[in-house]
Structures
1.
Amino acid sequence: MKVLPKIEKITEKKLVGMRINMSLADNKTAELWRTFMPQKKEIKHQINEELISLQQYQSHYFTDFSVHNQFEKWACVEVSDFNALPANMETLILEAGLYAVFNYKGINTDTSIFQYIYGTWLPSSSYVLDNRPHFEVLGEKYKNNDVNSEEEIWIPITNKS
C-alpha cells in the first residue's frame, strides 16, 4: 500500500457534537453515533452535511500505545457559530494547523490504513505527529460498513525539527 496524502493547513473550526471516553479495546463508536445521529437535525448553523468523527488523544497515547489507552471520541459537525446549542450537545474549537489528508476507500473497520499511516508513511516523511485532534470527514460518499465507502482521514502533523 502506497498512499500519499495531501498536506493542508486548516483554519480554526467550530464543531458541535457529542463525545465519549473510550479505548480501542472498549470501542463505543457505534453507541456514540447512535445517540448523535437522531439529534443532528437540531444543530443550527451547520456549514455542510459532512459528519466529523474526531479523536483527542493524550500526548503519550502513541508513544506508550496500548489498545486499553483511553481517548475522547467525538461525533460532530462544523457550524458557523455556537448560538442555539441543542441539549446534550457540546462545543469544540478545532485549532488551526497542518494536516496530512488521506483519501480512504474501504470498510471502516479495516485498520490497515492506520497501520500504514503511523508505521510506514509518517516515519519516512518529513513530519511528526502534532498533539491536536485527529479526525475523519464522512462526506456524501461515506457508507457505514461498505467496501465502497469513501472518507478523508486527517492526521495532525508538524515539520520535523
2.
Amino acid sequence: MPAATNRADLIAVCEKEFDRLQSLLGKLSETLAMSPDEDGVSARDIIAHRAHWIDLFLGWYSDGQAGVEVFFPAKGYKWSELKSYNADLRAKQADMDWAAAQAALLAGHERLMWFLAKLDDDALYAAPMKGAKNDWPTGRWAEAAGASHYRSACKFIRARLRDGV
C-alpha cells in the first residue's frame, strides 16, 4: 500500500527507505553481495535491478508526457512476463560489479529525487500518469520505483546477512 499522498511525504518516504537500504549495504561484504542465493540471485542483482527500475519509471513518465507509446513494463514484455524480464535483465547486468551496482542505485535515487523535487502535488497525485493505462497517479508509480523497491531490497539483504552465506 502506498505510504504517500503528497510530494513532501513521497520525498520523505523515499529518502527514509533509501537511507535504510544504504545502511544495510554498508554491512554487506562484496563477497556476500556477489554471492547468489538458492534461486541464483545476488544482492548485486537486486541493487542493479532497483536502479534499472527507477530509470524505467522515469522513461515511462517521459514517454507519457511526450504522448508516445509507453511500454509497460518494457517493450516486448507484458506484466505477466516480469519473471522473464527480470531474468533477462540479470543476464544483461551480469558483468556489473558490486561498486557499479551501488553507484547505479545512488545515481538512480538522485535522479528520482530531482524528478520529485520539480513536480507539485497536482502533477504527482491529481490524475493518472499519462500513458500508464491504469488509474495510478505519477506519485504512486514513483513510490513503487523508489521507496517500495528499497523496502523489498532491504528485506532481501537482511535475509542474506542473517544467512551469512
3.
Amino acid sequence: MPNHFHFLIKADQRTMKTLIIGKQSRNSLSVGIRNLLQTYSKAINRQNKTTGSLFQQNTKAKSVSTGPETYGKTCLQYIHQNPLKAGIVQRMEEWPYSSFQDYCGLRKGTLSNKDLAFQILDLNETTFYEDSYKSLNDEDVKNIF
C-alpha cells in the first residue's frame, strides 16, 4: 500500500523474549520492527535530504492465536485484498508489493513462508485463489483491529 503496510508474522519464543531497554520492557519482535522502521526512515531521509519521521503512528501488533480459529486466515485475506479494496488495482495479482502472487504460484518469492502459512492457517492450495476473492465478513474484519 502506498501509505501503510501489513505483516502477518509467526512469532516464537525468541521473538517474544522480553528485552529491557532503558526502563521499558519490550519483546524482541517489537524492537526488531522498530529498528526496521528507523533504518528505513534514515535511508529515505538521507536519499531525499530530509529529516523527521516517515510514519504517523506507532506500529500495532495483535496476536492471531488468541482470536477465533479463522482469525489468521481472515488477516491474510484482508492483507491480500487491501489494494483491491483501496481501488489501486483491478485484481489482487496486479499489486507487485503483496505476497498474493507467491501464494497463488504466479511468482516464486522467498520472503513469505508459504508452506508454513498453508499449514498453520489451514489454507487449501487448490482453492486458494478463488477463496481469496471471497468477501470478508465485516465483523471478522473489525476483530482484526
